[in-house]
Design a protein that fits this description.
By secondary structure, this protein is of the alpha/beta class. The chain has one domain (2-208): Alpha-Beta Complex (Spore Coat Polysaccharide Biosynthesis Protein SpsA, Chain A), CATH 3.90.550. Helices cover 32% and strands 18% of the residues. Strands 5-4-1-6-8 form a five-stranded mixed beta sheet, sandwiched between helices. A hairpin with a 2-residue loop joins strand 2 and strand 3 (38-39).
Length: 211
């Protein structure tokens, strides 16, 4: 149903997958760590609904990440200066975006994120393409999760971000333009940024993979 809706409009949003983090707290590139029978990165990309977007960019720092993602329908964009922070990856993704509608920013270390969640966020955005669309978990209104969809009008503010500032700065600055979408499954928004989170993700993934 969502795919039909997207096809019915002249433009689709783009998507930027942020995958250039240094993984300092992990001691190894977290996206390449094993999860189930594959890796954290593959668990994120495999169910991702690429067809909903005009173009999908993956911004990477480690060439092994680009190699691991090469079989997917996306554009790999090298971040050769990841020390400049998340804002630099955001600008690199924006530079490759061609959608006049807007774009979704995702983080690749959310291996439990569900395709239906991405689809629902896109649907809500297409209904109100002037709004910033964010998912929220139960009891956490005001604590927005990833991914987030930004309208084209947000481009200048996104390009002006510095250091490790992400899109949440815009959400805080323009609260009247934020549309929150509630989801019951809080675990799918968990990102892997510590060894403890990684171990928890492995346990959750194993449980969800049981027949």
């Amino acid at each position: 149903m969502v795919a039909m809706l997207v096809d019915a409009v002249s433009d689709r949003p783009d998507a930027v997958i942020l995958a250039a983090g240094a993984s300092r707290r992990m001691g190894a590139n977290k996206l390449l760590l094993p999860l189930g029978t594959t890796t954290v990165l593959d668990c994120f990309l495999r169910p991702f609904p690429f067809a909903l977007f005009g173009r999908v960019m993956l911004v990477y720092g480690d060439p092994r990440v680009a190699e691991a993602a090469s079989s997917y329908p996306l554009v790999c964009v090298a971040n050769q200066a990841p020390a400049l922070g998340k804002s630099h990856s955001i600008r690199l993704g924006l530079a490759r975006s061609r959608s006049p509608l807007g774009l979704m920013f995702c983080v690749a270390d959310q291996p439990l994120l569900q395709a239906a969640t991405v689809e629902r966020l896109v649907k809500v955005f297409i209904d109100k393409p002037e709004m910033m669309v964010v998912p929220v978990a139960p009891g956490k209104a005001g604590l927005q999760q990833n991914p987030v969809v930004f309208p084209a009008a947000s481009r200048m503010e996104l390009e002006a971000l510095q250091g490790d500032s992400g899109g949440r700065r815009l959400l805080a600055r323009f609260p009247a333009q934020v549309r929150q979408v509630p989801f019951d499954d809080e675990q799918q928004f968990m990102d892997i940024d510590t060894p403890e989170r990684y171990q928890l993700a492995r346990e959750i993934y194993a449980l969800r993979s049981q027949p």
